[in-house]
Write a structure and sequence with these properties.
This protein starts with 14 loop residues before the first helix and ends in a 12-residue tail after the last helix. The protein has a domain at 15-49. The protein has helices spanning 15-28, 41-49. With 61 residues, it is mainly α. It is built from two helices and no strands.
């Protein structure tokens, strides 16, 4: 089993700004973005592309 990594930004305190930036880009591309869960839009994009991606572990996909 592979160890899970938690990606971290190099610059402290930038996470909130990056989340807002990603949400803004996805909105401009026409996706509906939940401001409380901006990363959830990746599941919608994956579905459109035919990629099996679900919340949680996707190692067996």
């Amino acid at each position: 089993m592979m160890a899970r990594r938690k990606r971290r930004y190099v610059v402290p305190g930038v996470e909130q700004g990056m989340q807002a930036f990603k949400a803004d880009v996805m909105r401009r591309e026409g996706y509906t973005v939940n401001p409380n869960l901006p990363d959830d839009v990746k599941y919608e994009v994956a579905k459109e592309l035919g990629v099996s991606l679900h919340p949680g572990d996707n190692g067996s996909c």
